[in-house]
Write a structure and sequence with these properties.
Layout: H1 3-12, H2 32-44, E1 48-55, E2 58-65, E3 73-78, E4 95-97, E5 100-102, H3 110-124, E6 133-139, H4 148-155, E7 162-166, E8 174-177, E9 179-188, H5 203-223, E10 235-243, E11 253-262, H6 268-281, E12 287-290, E13 299-300, H7 306-315, E14 321-323, H8 328-334, E15 339-342, E16 356-358, H9 359-374
Parallel strand pairs: 3-6, 3-7, 7-15, 8-14
Antiparallel strand pairs: 1-2, 2-6, 4-5, 5-16, 8-13, 9-11, 9-12, 10-11
Helix pairs in contact: 1-3, 3-9, 4-8
Length: 377
């Protein structure tokens, strides 16, 4: 296997499951093992290392490749270090089968970590090391939960002329992604004995009408709006429902949680007003609350920006693409750094039990990054 593939195997073997998904003190939790390993690997190549505290016991790893002269430009490579949980510990044992390398995080996003770090190290050892452009590798924590790593980086002094956020994009440059808002609706009724339902007020029945409204009329109205050229239409999905205690009691409460994917220009406040107005028009009562404290905005980066144009040309991509999922790119963009999404692997493999990445895609992404970074002055 190549050096990049070997590096990826080493990364997969280091558990870095997001602690939000595990019991306190779980041995597989946290990104520190990966951050320390990447720091040592980068330092050996001559990169300057810095740890940025984000949460207790969790840090962003910052590795800088300084230019040969005075820095006038900065490019940020930003994959995340955390993964979703595993079914069992065998997913931390990487194995190769044909062109595929299997293991937790192989494509989401330790493949991007390996490709981006390898590209920077190759540049550090080559004669094409930029004279005026600082290259920064930022391994971020907590992307799979609340994006605390990218939020901390966006709040810091570290801004760049372009951020390339690592996600499995099949080695294509993504300039737009949807945003995500999770909200909760609660209906309230009156409990009564199941043998006398007329004495109560069924909160589940009230919620059923709301669910039907959201999944039919409201969903259809989203599809009737202007279609975004890269992202298509905004969507809504009722993901969970909880109500009642047992069959012979009229339920006095019911709650649903809803996933609303947003397009550029849509806001959390606007979506809230939209939902509340719709319920009022239909004379349906429910209380609205946010189901997560940190919604992720949609993103659309101007393809005419010089570095974005150059990146597209350098890999031979004619047109940018968009994706339905959200990631750290929007957060960095809101913090003042124009961002695109790029990395090896296919998002269809992310979070699966048998997660894998194409080794050809891994090598191609590494070479594409080296080619682009080598063009910098």
């Amino acid at each position: 296997m190549s050096k990049t593939a070997t590096l990826l195997c080493e990364l997969i073997a280091l558990p870095s499951v997001n602690p939000a998904f595990l019991p306190p003190g779980d041995a597989w939790a946290g990104e520190q093992r990966v951050a320390d390993f990447v720091a040592v690997t980068a330092a050996r190549a001559g990169l300057e290392i810095e740890f940025q505290k984000v949460l207790p016991g969790r840090v962003n790893l910052i590795a800088r490749l300084q230019p040969r002269g005075r820095a006038t430009k900065r490019i940020l490579l930003a994959p995340h270090l955390d993964t979703v949980p595993v079914a069992d510990e065998s997913q931390f044992v990487p194995y190769k089968k044909g062109d595929r390398l299997y293991g937790r995080g192989a494509c989401d996003t330790k493949g991007s970590v390996a490709a981006m770090l390898s590209a920077v190290i190759k540049l550090a050892h080559s004669k094409q090391r930029p004279r005026e452009t600082e290259i920064i590798f930022a391994g971020l924590v907590d992307e799979e939960n609340a994006q605390a790593g990218s939020r901390a980086l966006a709040r810091s002094h570290l801004k760049a002329d372009l951020a390339i956020v690592g996600e499995p994009t099949n080695d294509q440059i993504v300039t737009a992604h949807k945003g995500n808002i999770w909200f909760q609706l609660d209906t309230h009724g009156k409990s009564a004995h199941g043998s006398r339902p007329e004495l109560g007020r069924n909160a589940v029945h009230a919620m059923a009408r709301i669910v039907d409204l959201l999944e039919t009329e409201y969903a259809a109205s989203l599809r009737q709006r202007r279609r975004h050229p890269l992202l298509g239409y905004a969507t809504i999905n009722v993901g969970t429902i909880r109500g009642g205690t047992q069959p012979n009691i009229v339920p006095d409460s019911c709650a649903i949680t809803v996933d609303r994917r947003t397009l550029p220009g849509e806001t959390e406040a606007g979506v809230k007003r939209e939902i509340q107005s719709l319920l009022a028009r239909k004379k349906l009562r429910a209380t609205f609350s946010m189901a997560r404290q940190a919604p992720c905005s949609s993103m659309e980066t101007n393809t005419r920006l010089p570095l974005v144009r150059q990146f597209l040309r350098s890999i031979g991509q004619q047109k940018p693409v968009g994706v339905n999922y959200f990631c750290d790119a929007a957060i960095l963009a809101e913090g003042g750094t124009p961002s695109v999404v790029f990395g090896p692997g296919d998002i269809a493999q992310a979070h699966t039990v048998d997660e894998w990445i194409s080794l050809r895609s891994l090598e191609r992404a590494t070479n594409m990054l080296v080619r682009f970074l080598s063009l910098q002055p």
